[in-house]
Amino acid sequence: MGRLAPSHNAVLDQVRKLYAAEEFEQAEEGARFVAAMPAVRGSDHQLASWLARTLAVTAALTHGRGEEVLPGVEALITDLTRAPGAGPTLQKLLLTVRAHRVEILIQTERHEEAEAEARTVLRAAVRLAHLAEVWEVELLALAKLAAALNAQGHHEEAEAVPRGNLPRADQRRAGAFHRALASSLNGQGRYEEALAEAREPAATGGRAADGAVDVLSATALDGLGRRKEAEAAARQAVSACARSLHPAHPRHREARALLARLTAE
Asked: CB 199: neighbour CB atoms within 10 A?
C-alpha cells in the first residue's frame, strides 16, 4: 500500500476519533470530505479514498442507515476486489467492508444471504491470517453470523458462536456477543438466562447498541410473565432508539412493535 498525504492522514485521524467518540454523523461527514479531497503529489490518493469511503460507510451503518448506503458498499467492494496487486492490508479492508455488508443484509431482512456472506468472510479471514492480523474482522463477522442465525430461528447454533468466542473478544466486541447470546436464549425460551445476559454490564455497547438491551430484557421479562416490567423496558427501548439512532434503523421498528404487542395484550 502507498503513502498517505499528511493532510489526508490528519483528517482521517480526526474522523477516527469522532467515530470512537460515537459522533457518527460528524465522522461520516469528515470521511466523505477526505474522499473528495484532491490528489497530492507523491501520495496514494486511491488508498486515501478507499479508507475514507470505508470510514463513511462504517459511520452511516453504525448510525442505522444500512439500506441507504448499500449501493456505496457494493461499489466499494467492487473497487477493492479489482484493485491490482492488492496486498494483505487492502485484503483486510475488503473483508471489513464485506462484514459491513452482512450487517446491511441483516438490517434489510435478507438473513440467509447475510449468513452466507458472513461465512465467506470468515473463510477468507482464515486464508489471510498468515499474512495479516485479522482477529478484529473475524470477531466482527462472527457477531454478524450469530445475528443472522438468530434471525432465522437457528437459536442453538447461534448460541454456540458467542459462547465459543467471548473469551477472546475485547470489551467493545464482547457486547455484541452478549447481546447475541441473550437473543439466542430468548429464542429458546430460556428467559432467566437471557435476562442475566442482557443485564451483563458488557452487553450495553454504547450508542450504537442503544435500545438493544432493553428489547432483549423486555422480551425475557415478557416470557417470565413480568408484564409491567416488560412494558417499562420496551418503553425505554423506544426512547433510547429515538434519542440515539437514525429513524431508519430497524431497531426502531422492533422496539415499537414489541411495545405495541405488550400494551395490546
From this structure: 15
How much is the mean pLDDT over the chain?
90
pLDDT at 102 exceeding the cut of 80: yes
Among candidate residues 76, 68, 61, the one with its CA nearest the CA of residue 28: 61
Please give the average per-residue pLDDT across 247-258, as a whole number: 93
Phi and psi angles of residue 43, each rounded to the nearest 5 degrees, phi first: -120, 165
The CA distances from residue 30 to 15, 37, 93, in Å, are 6, 11, 19
Tens digits of per-residue pLDDT, 36-74?
A: 877 655 456 678 888 889 999 999 988 888 888 999 999
For residue range 128-149, list pLDDT tens digits in order: 999 889 999 999 999 999 999 9
Per the listing, cell 473475524 goes with 138
Contacts of 79 (CB under 8 A, 6+ apart): 50
Q: Which residues contact 196 (CB under 8 A, 6 or more apart)?
A: none
Residues 6+ apart with CB under 8 A from 243: 210
The label of the residue with cell 499474512 reads 131
Helix (H, G, I), strand (E, B) or coil at 182: helix
Reported as half-sphere exposure (CB side, CA atoms, 13 A), residue 98 has a value of 28
> What's the number of CA atoms in the CB half-sphere (13 Å) around residue 126?
6
Alpha-carbon distance of 81 to 206, in angstroms, equals 32
